[in-house]
Design goal:
By secondary structure, the protein is α/β, with parallel strands linked by helices. It has 8 helices and 6 strands, in the order H-E-H-E-H-E-H-E-H-E-H-E-H-H. Helix content is 40%, strand content 8%. Strands 1-2-3-4-5-6 form a 6-stranded parallel β-sheet.
Length: 275
């Protein structure tokens, strides 16, 4: 729902307008208790530097009290077979002068930043979080584990590097982690290549080391389960994933479960509607 016309940097505002319309319909009660889009994360190009402020102003007007922040993907890897040519990104973006100039505006406005990247880049997020300790940063998809291309067949090596980066990043108190998004093709778990879809037990068993590492590092209070649908639908169904999350959280206490399934997200995105 990006705008078809107008300045390029303003076109993502259309997406926020659409999401806010969906939220308004839900708020009317026509959908029952469902409150879809109660918190909206849009997009703005932080490489605009300080010139991104009018974009933020437009997004905040379009989203009203529901607008929370943006996601600006920076996924890059040295293996060209992994990076999508449709979304070209150069390395080191999180440390770029112009990016940080734009990020400073985001931080000043009290907006959050969702970051999607690949696991070799996680340490760059720690650097950004340290430079902007007052900014709320959300690591998407447990940090984008790679299991294809140059990383295929190196699951143990990848896990070791990823786990060390996750533990270091968790030391930054202004960072949250979304626990999910592991059903994407680039993760290389292969559920999407099997003749039959996996059961919740199979999904839970496969993802357990990654889920437990994140929760142990960040704590349940800064960890939130995410479905990443419809993207992860190539690997499993929506109910299968959420039932897997229930299995993964089986040994957690009541407060921890409340945080993992709702509380952490409510605090991070200021979702008073589900508190």
């Amino acid at each position: 729902m990006y705008r078809e016309q107008g300045p390029e940097e303003m076109r993502p505002v259309g997406e926020t307008e659409f999401a806010n319309g969906v939220a308004a319909m839900c708020s009317s009660g026509v959908c029952g208790k469902t409150k879809a889009c109660a918190g909206i994360v849009g997009h703005a190009d932080l490489m605009l530097g300080s010139r991104v402020e009018p974009v933020f102003s437009a997004l905040m007007r379009a989203g009203g009290e529901r607008f929370r922040g943006i996601r600006h993907g920076v996924s890059w890897d040295a293996d060209p077979s992994i990076v999508s040519p449709a979304s070209p990104v150069r390395p080191g973006l999180l440390a770029d002068k112009m990016f940080r100039e734009g990020f400073a505006v985001l931080s000043r406005l009290g907006l959050s930043y969702d970051v999607s990247l690949y696991h070799p880049q996680i340490n760059e997020v720690a650097g950004l979080a340290g430079a902007f300790p007052d900014a709320r940063i959300v690591l998407n998809h447990v940090g984008g584990l790679l299991g294809i291309g140059a990383y295929r067949g190196k699951r143990n090596e990848v896990f070791s590097r990823w786990a060390a980066s996750i533990k270091a990043l968790a030391a930054r108190p202004n960072v949250y982690v979304k626990v999910g998004g592991l059903g994407q093709g680039y993760n290389g778990f292969g559920f999407n290549e099997q003749a039959e879809p996996p059961s919740s037990e199979m999904v839970a068993a496969t993802f357990r080391p990654y889920v437990e590492t994140c929760i142990e590092a960040f704590g349940a209070s800064r960890s939130m389960f995410e479905s990443n649908f419809p993207v992860d639908k190539i690997s499993y169904s929506y109910p299968v994933f959420w039932n897997a999350c229930k299995l993964l959280a089986k040994g957690a206490g009541r407060t921890e479960k409340a945080d993992l399934f709702a509380g952490s997200a409510a605090r991070c995105y200021r979702l008073d509607v589900i508190r």
